[in-house]
Recover the amino acids of this structure.
């Protein structure tokens, strides 16, 4: 029991999600720059499964996801992945423009 509880805590901390945020995001939105949508969806699935088995543990997970350390870490990761995503989009635009102007001659 203690090992499974520790495993669930580690999973939640690694995926670092809050339940209300998960349900408001779509995995398949094309304009999403947030790379944490899929881990959020996985964390929501884990939370829902655990909550069905034991509401007490589910509440504990929800509370653990709201701790300042988890929230600050998650916000940092979101901020940095958003920056990386924007840079990747800019790079793709430059490559596309280079392809059209230099290779195809448009």
């Amino acid at each position: 029991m203690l090992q499974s509880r520790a495993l669930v805590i580690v999973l939640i901390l690694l995926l670092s999600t809050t339940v209300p945020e998960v349900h408001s995001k779509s995995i398949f939105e094309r304009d999403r720059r947030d790379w944490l949508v899929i881990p959020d969806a996985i964390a929501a699935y884990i939370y829902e499964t655990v909550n069905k088995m034991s509401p007490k543990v589910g509440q504990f997970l929800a509370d653990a996801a709201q701790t300042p350390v988890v929230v600050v870490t998650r916000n940092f990761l979101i901020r940095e992945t958003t920056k990386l995503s924007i840079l990747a989009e800019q790079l793709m635009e430059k490559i596309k423009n280079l392809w059209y102007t230099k290779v195809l001659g448009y």
